[in-house]
Design brief:
Protein name: Heme ABC exporter ATP-binding protein CcmA
Largest sheet: 5 strands, parallel
GO molecular function, one term: ATP binding
Organism: Novosphingobium aerophilum
Pfam family, one: ABC_tran
CATH architecture: 3-Layer(aba) Sandwich
Strand order of the largest sheet: 5-6-7-3-8
Bound molecules: adenosine-5'-triphosphate
CATH topology: Rossmann fold
CATH superfamily: P-loop containing nucleotide triphosphate hydrolases
Radius of gyration: 16 Å
InterPro entries: AAA+_ATPase (IPR003593), ABC_transporter-like_ATP-bd (IPR003439), ABC_transptr_haem_export_CcmA (IPR005895), P-loop_NTPase (IPR027417)
Shape: globular
Number of strands: 8
Length: 192
């Protein structure tokens, strides 16, 4: 696993004419995880986007060393392709195939177009691609949405394995997720 590090300093986020949060500090080294918690609309997705470099902070800085792997509400897979081919598209970038499809219960779905997959199956597929990507910095926005109880436990295990292998993870979720030893950020504590 490539060396990784993620930090945010005095971070503030504005969406539209509203400042959502300010004064947020975060430091994650290889092997560490953080859960970002908070009510709907408080700014969890916005924080993930700042950490991913997809949006500019209103104030403060983000420093990231290591490629980011982002999972959000869009699976990042061509909806018109069968799942197997949609995942294969990423192989040329990732340099490896999505070997976790079996573990994620997708083994029988290779011929099913992505648009026909259920919500939970799409989320599982996004996680299969995330693992294949091999990025050290995982930024997971509501990764449990649509997942059944077994899949929730699997995500908890996969995140723990990723961190044990030297990766790091930020998990934004309004649902409980077991991340032993993880930091926790309550976004309401930074409400502007
Ligand atoms: N492009 C935008 N312009 C203006 N406001 C926005 C924009 N995008 C999001 N917002 C607002 O920013 C706030 C935070 O949104 P965000 O999606 O980060 O919240 P969240 O904590 O992830 O919510 P949820 O738990 O419902 O997913 C919301 O009030 C939302 O309406």
């Amino acid at each position: 696993m490539p060396v990784c590090h993620l930090s945010a300093t005095a971070l503030a986020c504005r969406r539209g004419d509203r400042v959502l949060f300010r004064g947020l500090d975060l430091t994650l080294q290889a092997g560490q995880a953080c859960q970002v918690a908070g009510a709907n609309g408080i700014g969890k997705s916005s924080l993930i986007r700042l950490l991913a470099g997809l949006a500019e902070p209103f104030a403060g800085t983000v420093e990231r060393h290591g490629e980011a792997g982002l999972v959000d509400e869009r699976p990042g897979l061509d909806p018109h392709l069968p799942l197997g081919r949609a995942l294969a598209f990423w192989e040329r970038f990732d340099g490896r195939s999505a070997e976790a499809v079996g573990r994620l219960g997708l083994g029988d779905l290779a011929d099913v177009p992505v648009r026909f997959l259920s919500t939970g199956q799409k989320k599982r597929a996004a996680l299969a691609r995330l693992i294949a990507q091999g990025a050290p910095v995982w930024l997971l926005d509501e990764p449990l949405n649509g997942l059944d109880v077994d899949a929730v436990a699997l995500v908890e295990t996969i995140v723990a394995e990723h961190c044990a292998a030297g990766g790091l993870a930020v998990v934004a979720s309004h649902q409980p997720i077991a991340l032993p030893g993880a930091q926790r950020i309550e976004l309401r504590d930074f409400a502007a």
